[in-house]
Amino acid sequence: ISGNADSNPGPQAWEGGKQAPINAMATFRNRLWYAIGDTVFSSRLNSLGDFFLEDPALLVDTDPIDVQLSSNKYTPVVSLTPFESYIFVNTGADVQFALEGSDNQITPYTAALSSESFYSTSDVTTPILMGNQVYFFDARRMYIYMPSSAVTVQRAMEVSKHCPNYLPDAYGSMAVCNAYETMFMTDDNNRSDVY
Question: CA 107, CA 29: separation in Å to the nearest integer?
């Protein structure tokens, strides 16, 4: 109810009444997050259905967040995985991002996307969490993303390198047992095989 279609159009992905499929969604820090194409945006803080600025003339920390990933290459988002103080953003363009803020807060002023690793990944397998790491997958490969607190030059690495071609081409159901630091997965092409 504040502003008009020019001063308060809402998320870029819906600008001008455009309709597009939602690639991924998540809730994190009292906001509802959507990914459409190469755009990631959130609702207003503590109002999961409100995607518009309260006052277009004054941007505040509780206003919705709207960021775009692509720069020189189209980077469509395939999954959003909230974890610790950031959202792990997996794309179909062989790049993984972290959406984080400063002082442990993500606001319209502090939201920043940083490319973290450059691995090809499966569009249909969502990253999973175990312990304090995020694991993501591609055909016959598994990668681990280490949070910025354990930073080295490379923030992600392949953990299936020592057993090439062991993992399936297509992953089925997955589960973790944090107490035993164990991950289970099925082969989507042969459901009786458990890894």
Answer: 10
